[in-house]
Amino acid sequence: VVELPDGERHLELNEGLAVHSVYRPDTVLTGNVWDGYLIEPFSVRDEPPGRIAILGNGAGTTARAYAKYFPEARIDGVEIDGELHDIGKRYFDLRERPQLKLYTEDARPFLRRIDARYDAIFVDAYRQPYIPFYLATREFFELVRDRLAPGGVVIVNAGHPEGSDDLEQVLGRTLAEVFPTVLRDPIESTNTLLVATEAPA
Predict the structure, then answer these.
(1) Which letter, b or e, does each residue of 57-95 get, where b requires 16 or more Cβ atoms within 10 Å of its Cβ?
(2) Taking residues 145-151, what's their average pLDDT?
(3) Do 171 and 14 form a contact (C-beta atoms < 8 A)?
(4) Confidence at residue 191, expressed as pLDDT on a 0 to 100 scale
(5) CB 92 within 8 A of CB 64
(6) What is the DSSP string of 135-186?
(7) Strand boundaries in the chain, DSSP class E
(8) Residue 70: what pLDDT?
(9) Rounded to an integer, what distance in angstroms lies between the CA atom of residue 121 and that of residue 45?
(10) Is 97 helix (H, G, I), strand (E, B) or coil?
């Protein structure tokens, strides 16, 4: 955890090559890729998602923003490393509440096990050079599709080196094998959000 002079905190993992969560003392907005999860569902849905799974919850940046702007949303925050939940609570103002449940699990077994249907599933588990291959396969995206409610949407954060869209293209092609609609939002120079759905977008 790195704290800046103005009180902003960053969670840096993977040898400090990537920021995985951001906390600002005066706002839940980050000016970064996490803000995109607040708006991308509206490219498919007229209403905010009522039930969400965040696969790769980190220290809870997206969960905090949803608690502020869409407090009725029920969120399952899934993180393979439970220590990040503790760090989120200590340094990133992550608070468990009735609408937020935290799970320390690998995303794919979690989806296999959970008996739930989600309006939105956010996949935020890729950051080069660490790409969990089993979360980037057709079979994984079929499992994601099967856990979506009608009209649901999956939003994938494809973090990549600046100027490179190789990962985004590969993930987009794999998503297109499962979902009839795949959109891309190059939200910043090192992150593209891929939006996939069976619904019109």
Answers:
(1) bbbbbbbbbbbeebeebbbbbbbbeeebbebbeebbbbe
(2) 97
(3) no
(4) 87
(5) yes
(6) GSSHHHHHHHHHTEEEEEEEEEEEE--TT--HHHHHHHHHHHTT-SEEEEEE
(7) 2-3, 9-13, 18-23, 51-55, 74-79, 100-104, 118-127, 148-159, 181-188, 191-197
(8) 96
(9) 13
(10) strand
Handedness of CA 90, 53, 73, 61 (dihedral sign): positive
**3-state secondary structure (DSSP) of residue 67:** helix
Of 125, 184, 181, 171, the C-alpha closest to 148 is 181
HSE-CB at 48 with a 13 A cutoff on CA atoms is 15
- Which residue has 């009522």 as its token pair? 50
Residue in this structure with the two tokens 């993992």, named with its chain if needed:
13
CA 130 from chain centre, in angstroms, equals 16
CB atoms within 10 A of CB 113: 10
User: Can you give the length of the chain in residues?
Assistant: 201
CA 145 vs CA 40, 63, 153: distances in Å: 17, 21, 8
Residue 55 · residue 79 · CB < 8 Å: no
Q: Which residues are catalytic?
A: 124
Residue 98: per-residue pLDDT:
87
Q: In b/e form, how buried is each residue of 12-34, taking b as 16+ CB within 10 angstroms?
A: ebeeeebbbbbbbeeebebeebb
CA 53/CA 200 separation, integer angstroms: 21
Classify residue 6 by burial, with Cβ atoms within 10 Å: 0-12, 13-18, 19+.
Answer: exposed
